[in-house]
Fold each of these.
Amino acid sequence: MLEKHNVVYALDSRRNETHLFVQLIFTPTEEVIWAERFELSPVSIASHRTTIAQAIQNQLMSRIGSHQSAVGDFSRRPEAYFLYLKGLQSLSSISLPGTRRARKYFKEALDHGNDLPEALAGMSRTLTMEWILTARGDDDLLKKAEYFADNAIKQNGGSASGFKELGVSRLFMGQIDESLAALAEAESLSPQYADVLCSHADSLIHNSDPKSAIVKIKQAISLNPISPDIYFWTAAGASYFLEEYQQALDYIGRMSSKRLAARLAAACCGMMGDIDKARVYRAKVFEDNPSFDLERWLAVVPHKEPWQTEMYREGLIRAGF
């Protein structure tokens, strides 16, 4: 419906007994570019009605203005926009075939002009996802991911997606401080962009700060009620390092494709002493990745502090790895 009527911005509002929640969505990228919660108490609603209306109007104008370059890109090159959407659709479920299919669509979008920042950021995203899914520690994938993210930022210095993907690629390159800096910039550009909050939470986990990470990922989930698997996977990771193993398994249980988090689920069960379940998850890991090597994987997964690596190793060893 949005595509049929060429709707670029959608204002979504929800109300409960005490508050009005409003969010402005940039539909081409499904990005929440502004959100606010207003009190609706009997005392405040009459006096604040004008204030609320003015706040919504001002934010709409400023946020729409900052995204006009992207609108222009998509309007001038509708074929590229269509291919970009196909790429996003392919990434809706986390799998190696889906990731590679998405890369194909993003590459075809760039054939219509290699200066489309959203497609460049999409290319970067597929490369880091392949690095995670294959678990081989392929440095070349991360270098290419960083290259595409850098190009996205060069094309549009206000691209939250570009800074997000730069932060993700640098995280897995072991540059945790640089990753957090890039993600902080992405969040400042688009504070309600749930995907950015999710990636920021993931980097905070690797920065040995799971307490801050769980707060941020919960914020991402609240902004995106139909959350993708990566949100719950990230929340499970933060929970594991907070020693909330059952909570981690509960988050994994909310994933549509639970096999993605089989390693983490095995570690949780190992730490809880449920060895039978741990071995079931371990078997799934080797079904999907027969060449998985625990020590090689731990050597490439970055953690700020050694206790995290040891905690993850302990859980996996208890699970039979």
Amino acid sequence: MLQGLWEQLQRTLNNTVEALGISGLEWETLIITMAGQIMVSLIVLTVLLAIYLALKFLFAAVIKSRNPGATLYTSFQVSLRYIFMLAVVVALSAQYGASGELLKSQVRAGIMGLGFYLVWIALTNGFSKLLSRHTIDASLGQLINNMLLVVLLTLGVITLLAQFGFDVLSILAGLGIVGIAVGFAAQSTLSNFIAGITLLIERPFRIGDWVKINDQEGKVIKIAFRTTWLRTRDNIFTMIPNDSVATSDIINFSAEGPTRIRIPLGIAYKESAKEARNVILPLLQAHENTLQTPAMAPRVVMTGLGDSSVDLVALFWIRPEDIDIQPKIVCELLEQIKEGLDEAGIEIPFPHLQLFIDEARGLSPLLAPLKIQGAGTAAEND
């Protein structure tokens, strides 16, 4: 049965080869050769995998014992994995008949690629330590890292292509022409990019600040090349083009530390402002989110005499990290103030109108029936 299947397979392959015009192949030799190459490839892959796992285990134990940090350990893992993949590619290329020149190009390109990666890791760590030592804003460090990545990636790709015989000068010239074309086609993007650099240099806000830009209020999450990301109190992310940010009014609630909050209030004219202050002030002082330092103690002041109320304002300070929950704090205090004034019997007025009529003779025809009716009722009572 197996012999019959084998003969049928041979006839099918021969007919296919004759139809394609490539007859004369010895299929048995070809299949045996391919099977041998596959077996050798599997053996090579197994040996390389065993070496990779052994080195990974050995060096991981050495690195962990010295506790170098997560960044160095991750870099080691990536480098070792990269070397393993390079060895696999070179071994398989040699197994399937690649030329010696191609193998040398692969090795040189692989080593240079690893070199560019290690240089990027070293420069990134160096810049991070420099920024932290000089307390430079994290967003500026993010910009430097991104620009460094783009430069090294461009140089790395050009260098790797040169190892395989590509003309580097032609590539650079082509990139220059493409850059000019992209510059004309993406003026808005370039404008946003330049505006982003300006924002990172001038630093009207930093990552983590609470700002208001173009009527959009939120916490700065990220300053990217093209946009600035805000997260509102409703957990909605807003991306504003940097060009628009740079040309608009920016209100930064976190730049100078604590923020003062104002709650306007009103009491009736018959009430005492001092008594109202004695009710409201302890509530402001007792809240857990209000600052109690001598320079930022809560206060209640009179700001004016309105049409129907004595106008007061409750003033208190909150920490920068509490700006995110500012509406919650105001709502809690408003409710407590309302209940406190009600318990103290202090009236909170509402707009109303009092009408005084002196000798309104024009209304006499309307009021006369009422006067007659009132007089008759009085007579009956007598």
